Amino acid sequence: RRVALPSRVGGQHMPQIEAIDLKREGPARGRFISPRLAEEIRSLAKSQTEDSSSGPVESPSYSKRSFTYPVCGWNDVVEGTMEAVQKHRTGEKPLETQAAETFAGNDAYWVPVRGDTMVSHRGISFSEGRLTLVSRAVEPRDGQYVVARKGADTTFRQLREDAGMRFLRPLNPAYLDAVNLSDGWEIVGTVVSARYPESIFM
Predict the structure, then answer these.
(1) What span, in angstroms and rounded, lies between the C-alpha atoms of 95 and 137?
(2) What is the dihedral of CA 65, 68, 74, 76, to 10 degrees?
(3) 95 near 71, Cβ under 8 Å?
């Protein structure tokens, strides 16, 4: 069944659409759009500028989704962050929280960078105190950043794979010791975001 709408709802006007024959009105050498189209764009931009001279023009507002995760310490990583996150949820042991624009799973948490092993003078760098968002739901790939533990030892490094072997390497060239995962290390989470805590700006 065909329904003919003679006009737009709410008093809006249908836009005027007209095809441009680029064989007859093609762009000049070194240009990419028709002169008539360029003139229409200039005319539209001028009219919008004149309309805005009488007052401010409202910009559309876009809402960003935000997720909140607890900030855990490295002792929590040793003992098992799942327990710390669960106690935070139940209110038994409330933790500081930080917002994130990335959804990292229900059991994700922030943990602060310690030391300078991940400080680099070139490219990506993680200075001490910066928060890293650790996800247990993301399977780490070569080149990603991970948190790992071995007994009471914990570390934050970059995962690298070579000849079937998996290593954890620091970004700081002053530290040459790459950790071999086969030596008993366990990856407990993949870093999916990083930020500075809001408290340093207060």
Answers:
(1) 21
(2) -130
(3) yes
What tens digit of pLDDT does each residue of 116-142 get?
Answer: 999 998 889 999 999 999 999 999 999
Among candidate residues 134, 132, 129, the one with its CA nearest the CA of residue 201: 129
User: For residues 83 and 188, what is the distance between their CA atoms, to the nearest angstrom?
Assistant: 13
| Nearest CA-CA partner of 149 in 115, 118, 181, 185 | 185
How far is residue 113's CA from residue 105's CA, in Å, rounded to a whole number?
Answer: 21
Residues 6+ apart with CB under 8 A from 11: none
Structure tokens at 149: 């533990």
Give residue 138's pLDDT. Answer: 93
DSSP character for 59?
Answer: P
Percent of the chain with pLDDT over 70: 79
The secondary structure of 121-173, three-state, reads CCCCCCCCCCEEEEECCCCCCCCCEEEEEECCEEEEEEEEEECCEEEEECCCC
Closest to 135 measured CA to CA, from 67, 55, 57: 67
Phi and psi angles of residue 38, each rounded to the nearest 5 degrees, phi first? -60, -40
pLDDT per residue over 18-63, tens digit each? 788 878 888 777 666 778 877 777 776 666 555 544 444 454 454 5
Instruction: Report which residue type is found at 24.
Output: R
